[in-house]
Sequence to fold (165 residues):
Amino acid sequence: MSLFDNWKEIAFEHKTQEAEIEFWKEFCGAEKSFYEYILENYQKVTEETVKELTERLGVSNEFVMGFLDGINDSLVHRLNLEEITEDSTVRLEIDFEKLFYNMHEAKADYLYTLPQWEPILSAEKRKELEKAQKRSKIVVKEDRIGRNDPCTCGSGKKYKKCCGK
Fold:
Protein backbone atom coordinates (compact mmCIF):
# COMPACT_ATOMS: atom_id res chain seq x y z
CA MET A 1 0.00 0.00 0.00
CA SER A 2 1.44 3.41 -0.98
CA LEU A 3 1.94 6.28 1.45
CA PHE A 4 -0.82 8.18 -0.33
CA ASP A 5 -3.24 5.27 0.13
CA ASN A 6 -2.29 5.17 3.82
CA TRP A 7 -3.03 8.90 4.05
CA LYS A 8 -6.45 8.51 2.44
CA GLU A 9 -7.27 5.61 4.75
CA ILE A 10 -6.40 7.38 7.99
CA ALA A 11 -7.87 10.72 6.85
CA PHE A 12 -11.26 9.57 5.63
CA GLU A 13 -12.11 6.32 7.38
CA HIS A 14 -12.97 7.06 11.01
CA LYS A 15 -15.09 4.87 13.26
CA THR A 16 -16.60 7.72 15.30
CA GLN A 17 -17.19 11.40 14.83
CA GLU A 18 -15.06 12.16 17.90
CA ALA A 19 -12.13 10.27 16.36
CA GLU A 20 -12.53 12.24 13.14
CA ILE A 21 -12.61 15.57 14.98
CA GLU A 22 -9.53 14.62 17.01
CA PHE A 23 -7.67 13.51 13.88
CA TRP A 24 -8.37 16.74 11.96
CA LYS A 25 -7.47 18.87 14.98
CA GLU A 26 -4.09 17.11 15.19
CA PHE A 27 -3.54 17.30 11.42
CA CYS A 28 -4.42 21.01 11.23
CA GLY A 29 -1.87 21.78 13.94
CA ALA A 30 0.80 19.85 12.05
CA GLU A 31 -0.24 21.47 8.77
CA LYS A 32 0.07 24.92 10.33
CA SER A 33 3.65 24.21 11.44
CA PHE A 34 4.41 22.80 7.98
CA TYR A 35 3.19 26.00 6.29
CA GLU A 36 5.08 28.15 8.80
CA TYR A 37 8.25 26.29 7.80
CA ILE A 38 7.51 26.65 4.06
CA LEU A 39 6.60 30.34 4.32
CA GLU A 40 9.64 31.21 6.45
CA ASN A 41 11.85 29.63 3.77
CA TYR A 42 9.92 31.06 0.80
CA GLN A 43 13.03 32.25 -1.04
CA LYS A 44 14.37 28.76 -1.60
CA VAL A 45 12.78 25.79 -3.31
CA THR A 46 12.34 22.98 -0.78
CA GLU A 47 13.81 19.74 -2.07
CA GLU A 48 13.88 16.93 0.50
CA THR A 49 12.86 13.31 0.89
CA VAL A 50 9.61 12.44 2.62
CA LYS A 51 11.68 10.91 5.43
CA GLU A 52 13.64 14.17 5.92
CA LEU A 53 10.42 16.21 6.01
CA THR A 54 8.96 13.75 8.53
CA GLU A 55 12.00 14.11 10.80
CA ARG A 56 12.24 17.90 10.41
CA LEU A 57 8.60 18.44 11.37
CA GLY A 58 8.19 15.57 13.82
CA VAL A 59 5.12 14.11 12.11
CA SER A 60 4.21 10.81 10.46
CA ASN A 61 4.74 9.97 6.78
CA GLU A 62 0.96 10.05 6.35
CA PHE A 63 0.78 13.64 7.63
CA VAL A 64 3.52 14.64 5.17
CA MET A 65 1.46 13.00 2.41
CA GLY A 66 -1.61 14.92 3.58
CA PHE A 67 0.35 18.13 3.35
CA LEU A 68 1.64 17.24 -0.13
CA ASP A 69 -1.92 16.37 -1.17
CA GLY A 70 -3.10 19.79 0.00
CA ILE A 71 -0.30 21.83 -1.57
CA ASN A 72 -0.12 19.87 -4.85
CA ASP A 73 -2.49 22.23 -6.72
CA SER A 74 -0.27 25.20 -5.78
CA LEU A 75 2.97 23.73 -7.10
CA VAL A 76 4.57 24.85 -10.35
CA HIS A 77 5.18 21.18 -11.21
CA ARG A 78 2.59 18.87 -9.67
CA LEU A 79 3.64 15.68 -7.90
CA ASN A 80 2.38 12.20 -8.71
CA LEU A 81 1.29 11.37 -5.17
CA GLU A 82 0.61 7.70 -5.89
CA GLU A 83 4.28 7.05 -6.70
CA ILE A 84 5.84 8.79 -3.69
CA THR A 85 7.68 6.58 -1.21
CA GLU A 86 9.51 7.39 2.02
CA ASP A 87 12.77 7.77 0.08
CA SER A 88 11.32 9.87 -2.76
CA THR A 89 12.71 13.37 -3.13
CA VAL A 90 9.95 15.93 -3.42
CA ARG A 91 10.57 19.33 -4.98
CA LEU A 92 8.23 22.01 -3.67
CA GLU A 93 8.42 24.91 -6.12
CA ILE A 94 5.39 26.85 -4.93
CA ASP A 95 3.30 29.47 -6.71
CA PHE A 96 2.59 31.52 -3.58
CA GLU A 97 -0.25 33.57 -5.12
CA LYS A 98 -2.03 30.39 -6.13
CA LEU A 99 -1.36 28.89 -2.68
CA PHE A 100 -2.90 31.92 -0.94
CA TYR A 101 -5.91 31.80 -3.29
CA ASN A 102 -6.38 28.06 -2.66
CA MET A 103 -6.19 28.59 1.11
CA HIS A 104 -9.06 31.06 0.84
CA GLU A 105 -11.00 28.63 -1.30
CA ALA A 106 -10.50 25.91 1.33
CA LYS A 107 -11.59 28.37 4.04
CA ALA A 108 -8.36 27.67 5.94
CA ASP A 109 -8.25 30.91 7.92
CA TYR A 110 -5.69 29.42 10.29
CA LEU A 111 -3.31 29.27 7.30
CA TYR A 112 -3.96 32.39 5.23
CA THR A 113 -3.78 34.61 8.32
CA LEU A 114 -0.27 33.45 9.28
CA PRO A 115 2.12 36.39 9.83
CA GLN A 116 4.70 34.65 7.62
CA TRP A 117 2.72 35.83 4.56
CA GLU A 118 3.74 39.48 5.08
CA PRO A 119 7.17 39.39 3.37
CA ILE A 120 5.86 37.17 0.56
CA LEU A 121 2.72 39.01 -0.56
CA SER A 122 1.88 42.65 0.15
CA ALA A 123 -1.32 43.45 2.04
CA GLU A 124 -2.83 44.84 -1.18
CA LYS A 125 -1.99 41.68 -3.13
CA ARG A 126 -3.48 39.45 -0.41
CA LYS A 127 -6.66 41.57 -0.40
CA GLU A 128 -6.82 41.39 -4.20
CA LEU A 129 -6.47 37.58 -4.18
CA GLU A 130 -9.12 37.28 -1.46
CA LYS A 131 -11.54 39.40 -3.52
CA ALA A 132 -10.79 37.38 -6.67
CA GLN A 133 -11.57 34.15 -4.83
CA LYS A 134 -14.83 35.53 -3.43
CA ARG A 135 -15.81 36.91 -6.83
CA SER A 136 -15.33 33.50 -8.42
CA LYS A 137 -18.07 32.11 -6.15
CA ILE A 138 -20.68 34.80 -6.83
CA VAL A 139 -23.45 33.76 -9.18
CA VAL A 140 -24.49 36.59 -11.47
CA LYS A 141 -28.16 36.46 -12.35
CA GLU A 142 -28.77 37.36 -15.98
CA ASP A 143 -31.58 39.72 -16.87
CA ARG A 144 -34.62 37.77 -17.96
CA ILE A 145 -36.78 38.94 -20.82
CA GLY A 146 -40.25 39.93 -19.65
CA ARG A 147 -43.30 38.76 -21.59
CA ASN A 148 -44.18 42.33 -22.59
CA ASP A 149 -40.63 43.43 -23.47
CA PRO A 150 -39.63 43.87 -27.12
CA CYS A 151 -38.36 40.65 -28.67
CA THR A 152 -34.59 40.25 -28.82
CA CYS A 153 -34.71 39.13 -32.46
CA GLY A 154 -35.39 42.73 -33.52
CA SER A 155 -38.83 42.17 -35.08
CA GLY A 156 -40.41 44.95 -33.00
CA LYS A 157 -43.09 42.60 -31.66
CA LYS A 158 -43.58 41.78 -28.01
CA TYR A 159 -41.59 38.76 -26.85
CA LYS A 160 -44.78 36.85 -25.98
CA LYS A 161 -46.08 37.25 -29.57
CA CYS A 162 -42.78 36.41 -31.27
CA CYS A 163 -40.03 34.15 -29.88
CA GLY A 164 -41.66 33.59 -26.50
CA LYS A 165 -44.33 31.21 -27.84
